[in-house]
Specification:
single chain, 222 residues, 7-stranded mixed β-sheet, 8 helices, 7 strands
Length: 222
């Protein structure tokens, strides 16, 4: 028994993967294709992708949102977990990065489930709200520019149905959120720290912050 989360060294982390990871071949191939990318650290870990797939299936999700696609690993993971009529609204601004993942979406047979919109995510989310889609989504994953996290959260909360789930990545930010932060010198850390405090007090949601990857918050809309 332990009252705290275990620290994972390389040996134990490899065991975690060996004992539990059921990664689709195209997910593994995309992860490998991204391995040498200069920003490879932006990609979620495979165990986090599998965890999100489980959440999506438990929710019975059909309509989902992703903010921050990078090379498309998490979008592919979620799309694979959705039923045939499920859809991912994938929001990003980079054609260069997302172009890497699109062939893997095709080869996995789920490209038709992913609607990639290349424009600032707030524009996309506001447009969906303007066309009456509030309350029509089941799941959202936020993993983009940290200074806009609160804006993304508020839009996603409106777009989700009651009982829908928002997953927010990087909320522990390599531990920097636990420090005293100069908001001018480090606006990303300050934005995450402020959002974590806000979510802790937000009575519109049920909340859990988990030490998965760089910290993952789950917020269930009440």
């Amino acid at each position: 028994m332990s009252r705290r989360t275990l620290t994972l060294d390389d040996r134990l982390y490899q065991y975690l993967l060996d004992a539990s990871l059921r990664e689709h071949p195209q997910l593994a191939a995309l992860r490998e294709a991204t391995r040498e990318h200069p920003r490879a650290n932006m990609q979620i870990a495979p165990e986090q992708g599998q965890f999100m797939q489980l959440l999506v299936k438990m929710l019975g999700a059909r309509r989902t949102i992703e903010i921050g696609v990078f090379t498309g690993y998490s979008a592919l993971a979620v799309a694979l977990a959705l039923p045939e009529n499920g859809r991912v609204l994938a929001c990003d601004i980079s054609d260069e990065f997302t172009r890497i993942g699109r062939p893997f979406w095709q080869r996995a047979g789920v490209a038709h489930k992913i609607e990639l919109v290349l424009e600032p995510a707030l524009h996309t989310l506001d447009a969906r709200l303007a066309t009456g889609e509030a309350g029509h989504y089941d799941f959202a994953f936020i993993d983009a520019d940290k200074s806009s996290y609160d804006d993304y959260y508020e839009r996603c909360l409106r777009l989700l149905r009651t009982g829908g789930l928002i997953a927010i990545d990087n909320v522990l930010w390599s531990g920097r959120v636990a420090d005293k932060i100069d908001a001018i010198a480090d606006p990303d850390s300050a934005a995450l720290q402020w959002l974590n405090t806000k979510l802790h007090r937000d009575e519109r949601i049920d909340l859990s912050l988990l030490p998965i990857g760089d910290g993952l918050t789950l917020a269930r809309k009440r």
